[in-house]
Protein 1
Amino acid sequence: MNNRALKSMKWIFEIVLIIALSFMYYLNKPINSPKVIYIPKGSINKIISHLQSKNYNVSKLDSLILRVIGSPQSGWIQIGTLSSSRADFLYKLVTAKAALQNITLIPGETTYIFLNQLANNLGLDRELLQEEYDKQFKHKEGALVPNTYKIPIGITEQELIKILRSESTSAMKKLSYKIFGTYNENKWFHFVTLASIIQKESANIQEMPIVSSVIHNRLKKKMRLQMDGTLNYGKYSHVKVTPKRIKEDDTSYNTYKNKGLPSSPVCNVSFDAIRAAIFPAQTDYLYFMKSKNGTHDFSCNYSTHLSNIKRATKRNK
């Protein structure tokens, strides 16, 4: 009996040892992931399913382990390395949080300048950001919603552009449904293009519907818009428009040479500018000129506009 008991105990010990060693081996197997990953809110099973959908090597057993060590935190998680042990990976799901940095896209800024800002502030590759933007966005300009974005430090270029696309598209659709009851992309971006000119030309939010009325009125009369703001596109966002630029620029953004709106938005726009584009003030104005206090003097006829120009020119001499 004693020998049998000893053999049984030895057999049980060996089984336990094998299980323990297998479990240790399992916990030490590497999991490859980005340095920063996103964890959605929900149950542990939902989180594991999400990770599996992202091709992370996790399993049902990991659900059981997480139930013992704790529930994963939702949001962005700082993993820190591209490859970590399963034990370290699961522990960080429960304990870690990614450091966030605020990045602000101001109304009227171009995507070109904003991508430069993202690359400089977050230490990302500017060319990869552009490549990802071109892959994920149909519109080369005006597709981002000006806002302050909380960006996880360590995020990849692909994931960053994905965040910007998701948040911007969602916000635009929400406003479109509020105004029109539907979302038609072509119609929406027609107004975004119009709004981008309003954004560049207006001195303040209060002026936007009036500037919008000038644009609408000139378009109805098939007049060229002849607005400097349309030439502040892309890398020229903060470059002064000169007669030389007007003469040499052959893009659709040059509203001195071309009738109608540019083929795409000039910049990223605020929702105030979009509302102004959709709901212009009811005026007969066709011209405007910057006044002494920095706002604009609006006029219905060219002679009054010339007087406003003369006043401004005289004041600046």
Protein 2
Amino acid sequence: MRNGRAARFAWPSANKAGRGRLGRSWVSPFGAGLFGSLLWRFDGQPAGLSGLSLATGIAVARSLRALGVTEVGLKWPNDVLWRERKLGGILLESGASAGTLHVVAGIGLNVALPRQAALVIDQPWVDLREILGNGEMSRNRLAALLINELVEIFGRFEQGGFADLAQEWAGFDLMAGRRVRLRLPNAAVTGIVRGVDASGALLLESADGRVNTYLGGEIGLRLEP
């Protein structure tokens, strides 16, 4: 790729564990999922980097649709769902050196989780084996689809930020119009999700009708019962 950008997608070895947000672990038995990362180097500091996790989600959702997963959706800021059940997740990490910002987008997707291993998962989940129901699925094909979409999305993001992708995000957004409880590092707020803004920040309408914005980081989102 130009300007030293690099894409790397690989499955972990048997002794590697997946990692989620806030230090959580990701159930990742060997050969049971697709786990990998994309490294992208930005020349300088792009505006609205907070929206990059959402942009990554669009790339994942596109890839899954191309594979035949017709009901895939996204939960702000970094969950991939199918019928309200978690199919995958995204974790972004960044750093800077010599005026160059690098971002590593880590992605994990459930392909065929052994039921015994999945007993430790504390939320509704699903894998591609159940969704597609077509026997052995090619992780190589899924990886190729995903890499192509990630490179295209990251290139667009570098040129125009998240604003250029916000409308497409809305088509995958599963939270819009729903009442939720948003967990912050030291507090929690409730309200109705009104989508996201041009930077990827969550728009949450409170009981008094005001709409406040919330960025990513250590924010968790759970549906109100």
Protein 3
Amino acid sequence: MTVVILFAAAPCRAQSVSDFGTAIEDYFTNWFPRVTQIQSEQPHWITPLVTVTPRLEEEVRYDQFFESMRDGVATDNFGAGKGIELIPFQNTEVIVGIPGFLKRNIPRNTDGFADWPFLIKYRLLSANEENGNYIVTAFMGFSVPTGSNVNGNGHGIFTPTLAAGKGFGDFDVQSTVGVAFPSGGLDRLGMPLAWNTTFQYRLFKYFWPEFETNYTWQSYGADTGHSTLYLTPGMVIGRIPIHDRVGLTFGAGEQVAVTMHRTYNHNVVLTARIPF
């Protein structure tokens, strides 16, 4: 009897393994058609320079910062924590950043990598340009404290964020608001609230002049009550087709501090992206 049961069960197990393999194959085979369908349900604006877009994107991204600080200190940030952005499931995007490398002119021996950043987006509401031209998305960002003593935070940081956007013809507004919660070192790191807003206008299909406000308010720690506001004019150009789904987007802008309390005064931002 036992032999009969084993022989009867064997085809079932084989079929189960085969079905699982087929499901995995179908998942990757249908990746790009699935992404196209998901993105067709949202507006087709461009991703801003600083503000994280509420839209779901699939691309490889590299940013470069040139920050001018006090007392003649200049910091170059290679990568700025950007990396690869993927849409693995309906309404979901995962961003795996690459730790930025920070290089300073002074003091010496302070160069090194920052922490390792990640971000998960979940799109709550959306409509493309023909059906309302809006989007609402929830984020959960977190960083792993892999950075060096000078360039890392020393603790993990979790940043829940709510993002939204609305388009009016060729004009759109995208905005995010979130609070950072460190896993330790609260007196030093605090719990900063960040509110970024971008105003964009589309010109001649590929040109997106923009103006951003990047505001931070410190709600805890040594800097409690201090606010920092940067104004960021810029231009993003894209998405320029290269081949099939692959395109090119690039842009530049400058963050200028308008408050006395600030980390830096000028920050030249360069960005290059390959959406696919």
Protein 4
Amino acid sequence: MHEAMKMQPSENFDQHKNAAYRVAAVFMELLERQFPVESPNKPLQLKTAQDYAQNLALHVNYLNRMVKEVTGRPTSAHIAERIISEAKALLQHTDWNIADIAYALGFEYPSYFNNYFKRMTGTNPSSLRTMEV
């Protein structure tokens, strides 16, 4: 009986089609675990594809290739989308100043965050904050 139980796959075992699907799923789960940002004093630890690859013990090119194969988008696009999504949530639902949000999202300077946000969304962080939800 014990041998039969060992051969049966676990009910909680998440089966993936191939390695690419598994790598993409693990990357997406790791990305989501970075959020929500709860305090400006605890900034994001993983900000680049290289950071995620090191955390997953993979080469960055392999991670990018697997994620793009499964999702059709590069790793950096997923990271950028999630950072912008979190930035919008923080701007609209907290009273943190923009500099605190920038530091919490891993930007070295608030001006870098402002330029990044404007490039990705087409609007300034301060103007998004004043918009009606």
